[in-house]
Amino acid sequence: MSYEALSVTWFLLLGVLLAGYAVLDGFDLGVGILHPFVPKTDHERRLSMNSIGPLWDGNEVWLVTFGGALFAAFPHAYATVFSGFYTAFMLLLLALISRAVSLEFRSKVQSPGWRRFWDWAFFAGSALATLLFGVATGNAMLGIPLDAEGNFHGTVLDQLTPYPILVGLLTLTLFAMHGGLFLYLKTEGEFQKRLRDWMWRSWGLFLVLFMFTTVATILWIPRATANFEQHPWAAGFALVAMLAVANIPRSLYNGGTGQAFASSCVLILSLVGLFGAALFPNLVTASNEVAHSVTIWNGASSQKTLWIMLIIAMIGMPFVLTYSAVIYWAFRGKTKIGEHSY
Amino acid sequence: MDAVFLSRLQFALTIAFHYIFPPLTIGMGVVLVWLEGSHLRTGKAIYDTAARFWTKIFALNFAIGVATGIVMEFQFGTNWATYSRFVGDVFGSALAAEGIFAFFLESGFLAVLVFGWDRVGPRMHFFSTLMVALGSIFSSVWIVVANSWQQTPAGHHIVPVIRDGVEVMKDGAPLMRAEIVDFWAMVFNPSTVHRLVHVWIGAFIMGAFFVMSISAWYLLKRRHEEFARRSFDGALVLATVASLAALVSGHFQADSVYEHQPAKMAAFEGHFETGPADMSLFGIPDAESETVRMNIAVPGGLSMLLFQDPNATVVGLDRFREEDRPPLGPSFASYHVMISLGMLFIGLTLLSSFLRWRGKLYEQRWLLWVFVFAVILPVVSNELGWVAAEVGRQPWIVHPPVEWTANGDVVVGPSGVVEYDETLGLRTLDAVSPTVRASQVLGSIIGFGLIYLGLAAVWVFVLDRKIKHGPTPHEDSGSGGPKGLLGAVKERASESGRMTGNPQSAES
């Protein structure tokens, strides 16, 4: 394969890893975001946490592998993004740690104070991580000022402008909805009934923010739509996203929550697709000087490494997909609290 | 305090805390496979009980290992951006392979291991346990490959960075990076195998001592004795074999270190003047006067170890510029304490194995008490092994090669010291992120410090509760189901008093 084809392939594979992460960890982050609001009793809180109990850790590996693949395929971009967004990444790490350990620790001790503490840590970690992912996506869309060596010299405050915050809130509502739909599939009875309201609410909020974001993107980020003029097929992502958004209330109304959740998965996939299409071929867009952008052409590893990694991915991914599917299958059905639950 | 120092401090703190858990996971993984395999083979309930108990402890350790592990992957980019750009082509591949081959495997099957007891059959469960154990071992493979490449780079070449068809310049010189030429030569670089074997052995020792510590406590308290004896027996075999193997593996590693990083070996032993070298058993090295104070040494010991000849010449620190020498105190101390602990493990496990063979081990209460607390020691020795490896590599983050003359001396420049080819390595000082400020790193260190202190406290607290609660024989069928969960809980609580979710004793 040519160097160009390999670079594009790795851009696509990173997109696949990111999309996989967003769809999978999206619902368990969403369960965390809804945690203080929907479950009312201790038993319901345990159901909420155990619905994602066997799954969240594997889901998070998609992020870890995305990070590793970015490091390997585009080290220049990895270095720019991770050092440029230093404070944001540190906050993300603290959020992910508190989420992980609150799941593990919460139900180990009976004391209500202990459990309340970890309930809040679970919520705060989930919400903060989601918000940060959204803000990061917003900044990636907007671009950041880079020097000639591809370094960002600003602070975290420079990254908290209206557009990234808007995308951050959008992501919060998206994952809350996604998590609500997932939780609906895993629960029953009174708890499940209460979720219905939250699914509608988060869908409504998402719709409003989605429209705002679309308008803001078209108005503020002309570059984002430029790719669509050259490659009109990429607009297909937008079409699919809109159909998916519309199909969620339709399915909910008809009682097809499974279909609504599937639509929400498709929605997230197409949003990641839109994000990738808007970005291509940039990995980090320089807002000050186009030539300073880190692209898949100037930020890639050597042709040999991209090829080796592709072989590794082609050997590894079928296994990953197979046993992930088997494990999801093993944990299908409604969540029950048993001897081995959190 | 500058950003470099603080970034090093942060990396050291976060990796040291993280590294308590992976060896425990690897070591206990082996124990779990053995227990479940024994249950499948013999059908004895005691193995099942033991496997279920240790799985809970395993899951707790694993969770903290995962939570603190992501930090490591992110820090290469956040704090060491220049390093990431230099090594990404090589190091990144190993890291990505770790994600695809190891992390997915262990985290996926961990779900079945921890939550799947009632969802899959015993064979599938055993298979999952095997996959988790394999996954944790795979993950150690790739991370040790990456780290070994930093110690003894191979399979790559250093080339100028070309962006958009133009050579990138930095401070008037072309910016360079390492690129893979031969993948397998990179994977099997000269130190990979020795170091990997040593890391595994260290992990087995830690896992075994962890199991022995908890089992010894039960034996002392006369609780779950049958369970504790079986766990202790299995772990003792593992610990004895692994402790002896560590000595052999350590010897091969010392040879390899001397060949590729002679300055590191000289710092380990406080060997200043090139010539026959002693092996110091105890001492306080003094970099200024270039002596080891209060030295108790085996004359010619190091020469003997490396060349089987007490008079053989060993390259000393005098062959290196002062700025090219590793920090003496930490290198010397970490190396010596690690080895002393290794010797202690050999003595302790051999003595215990002998007593066990004579059937007297479980009467030696003092020895059981020693084992209760001895778990700290493998944690310390595993950590110190890494301190020795990483501090001894300084001032390099990627160590440049050393050349040898035909008569066993290093090739030196006109001034009589080794002149490293700076372009073939990378100094730690030059590797840090150019945009990250000291205040930011200080902030994140404080953040990690507080969170990790809290985590450590909660870990010990929860672990202590689990241990006090102890193993419980497995009863069939989970709770819940159509008859309603609360009812089931009440029913079972009254008969066993240990059901999860039960207000009286809610441990899981």
TrEMBL record, chain A:
It is found in: Cell membrane. It holds the Pfam family Cyt_bd_oxida_II. Belongs to the cytochrome ubiquinol oxidase subunit 2 family. The chain crosses the membrane at residues 12-38, 85-105, 117-142, 162-183, 203-221, 233-253, 260-280, 306-331. One of its GO terms (molecular function) is electron transfer activity. It is a multi-pass membrane protein. Signal peptide: none annotated. This is Cytochrome d ubiquinol oxidase subunit II. The gene is cydB. InterPro entries: Cyt-d_oxidase_su2. It comes from Eiseniibacteriota bacterium. GO terms for biological process: aerobic electron transport chain. Keywords: Cell membrane, Electron transport, Heme, Iron, Membrane, Metal-binding, Transmembrane, Transmembrane helix, Transport. GO terms for cellular component: cytochrome complex; plasma membrane.
Automatic annotation (TrEMBL), chain B:
Residues 470-508 are annotated as: Disordered. One of its GO terms (molecular function) is metal ion binding. Its main location: membrane. One of its GO terms (biological process) is aerobic electron transport chain. Belongs to the cytochrome ubiquinol oxidase subunit 1 family. Pfam families: Cyt_bd_oxida_I. Keywords: Cell inner membrane, Cell membrane, Electron transport, Heme, Iron, Membrane, Metal-binding, Transmembrane, Transmembrane helix, Transport. Residues 497-508 have a biased composition (Polar residues). It comes from Eiseniibacteriota bacterium. It is found in: Cell inner membrane. This is Cytochrome ubiquinol oxidase subunit I. It is a multi-pass membrane protein. GO terms for cellular component: cytochrome complex; plasma membrane. Coiled coil: none annotated. The chain crosses the membrane at residues 12-35, 56-76, 96-117, 124-145, 197-220, 232-252, 333-354, 366-389, 441-463. InterPro entries: Cyt-d_ubiquinol_oxidase_su_1.
